[in-house]
Write a structure and sequence with these properties.
This protein has 411 residues and is of the alpha+beta class. The protein has 12 helices and 21 strands. It starts with a strand and ends with a helix.
Length: 411
């Protein structure tokens, strides 16, 4: 394999991984990053701790990819989650596995991940150019010849790897440049949506719940009474709606449906109990507080912030004594606990989205190399492609796997 000049656009997860592999293969590699530092999005991922992969079984990796999972067959089998963990351990980043098989640096510092990648790039002889924006990708007769920087300087290359990210968190530099380069080369871009993003809710009482976090709840989302999503876990109320892990994952599954109208969300506040078991529990609470008013008898069942809202929705007179509550009223209240209602009206913007749904159409990309089928020597990796997964480290795994494959095959 002869040494080639490889230019990489973007110093995020997939771009740095591509650079390391291409450098190790003996190519002359230049990486161009428009920001003042590398890995800005890695830095904020996992609330600054960087959930860098998921330690699930191989099958779990594919199940966690929501769009075009089959396209990733070669990439995942070439560089999977176990190999990703071994890579970082070898780079002196000790790891730990938390709830849901989420993998983090033992230090809880995403900066350790970025520092390790930078060190590996330097060791592989990669030239890194910060504050350097790419204006255009250059090609002749269907073959890459290089790229043009913002300052009009032309860089001649045998291969260009586009690792520009999507549209999410534009403050980190993901402003959709890669889609422009792809379109210019004749690629189609599938419709773009914010994904892994909080959702907005219609009800006014949401403002009273702002800041309340619920653990171990079951969230279900319905479209015209048809269940479209259900998941168990953690969620958070905000001033505009809902967020947290189960909600973010839901947004990627049902986001497109929200374009066509409102959806109904039900929160089972006590998923470990059946309706009958919960009714028995409520009877026990009531029997210990016979002469109390309803509003003072349910304190043990809910976080304090939720009580005023749930009382309002219960349609039971809050002053009513517990021993006067009818069986119908009690059953209605149990139903409310098993299906706390919200109306979803939209997604938040790309500014708050963790990733982008949509991107370069993978039918136009060779899954075994990440090379464009339209322009020889042009490669696409990471979030710029129409690939996305649920939360839990899967989207970074897509970045590592596609970046690794392109960097190794670029020869």
């Amino acid at each position: 394999m002869k040494m080639r000049k490889v230019s990489i656009i973007g110093g995020g997860a997939s771009g740095m991984m591509s650079a390391i592999l291409a450098g190790r293969a003996g190519h002359q590699v230049q990486l161009f990053e428009k920001n003042e530092k590398l890995g800005k999005k890695i830095f904020i991922s996992g609330k600054g701790r960087c959930n860098l992969t998921n330690a699930c079984e191989m099958e779990g990796l594919f199940q966690a990819v929501l769009t075009n999972a089959r396209f990733l067959y070669s990439a995942f089998y070439h560089f999977n989650n176990e190999q990703t963990m071994a890579f970082f351990e070898t780079c002196k980043v000790p790891l730990k596995i938390e709830r849901g098989n989420r993998v983090f640096p033992a230090s809880d510092h995403s900066s350790d991940v970025i520092a390790a990648l930078k060190k590996e790039m330097e060791r592989a002889g990669v030239q890194i150019f910060l504050h350097t924006a790419v204006k255009d990708v250059l090609y002749e007769d269907g073959t890459i010849v290089g790229l043009e920087l913002e300052n009009q300087k032309k860089i001649f290359s045998d291969a260009v790897i586009v690792a520009t990210g999507g549209m999410s968190y534009p403050s980190t530099g993901s402003t959709g440049d890669g889609y422009f380069f792809a379109k210019k080369a004749g690629h189609t871009i599938t419709e773009l949506y914010p994904a892994l993003v909080p959702m907005e809710v219609k009800e006014d009482y949401i403002k009273e719940l702002q800041g309340l976090s619920l653990r171990n709840v079951q969230v279900s989302i319905f479209e015209n009474k048809k269940k479209r999503y259900t998941e168990f876990g953690e969620m958070l109320f905000t001033h505009y709606g809902v967020s947290g892990p189960v909600v973010l994952s839901a947004s990627s599954v049902i986001g497109k449906r929200l374009k066509h109208g409102e959806l109904t969300m039900q929160i089972d506040l006590k998923p470990a109990l059946t309706f009958e078991q919960l009714d028995d529990r409520l009877l026990r609470e009531f029997s210990g507080a016979k002469n109390k008013q309803f509003k003072n008898a349910i304190g043990k069942l809910f976080p304090s912030k939720l009580i005023p809202v749930i009382l309002k929705l219960s349609q039971i007179d809050v002053e009513k004594q517990v021993n006067a509550i009818t069986k119908e009223e009690r059953h209605g209240f149990v139903g409310l606990m098993k299906g706390f209602p919200l109306t979803l009206i939209g997604l938040r913007s790309f500014n708050e989205a963790i990733i982008t749904k949509g991107g370069v159409n993978v039918k136009e990309i060779d899954p075994g190399t990440m090379e464009s089928k339209l322009v020889s020597g042009l490669y696409f990796v990471g979030e710029v492609l129409d690939l996305d997964g649920v939360t839990g480290g899967f989207n970074l795994q897509i970045a590592w796997s596609t970046g690794y494959l392109a960097g190794e095959r670029v020869g």
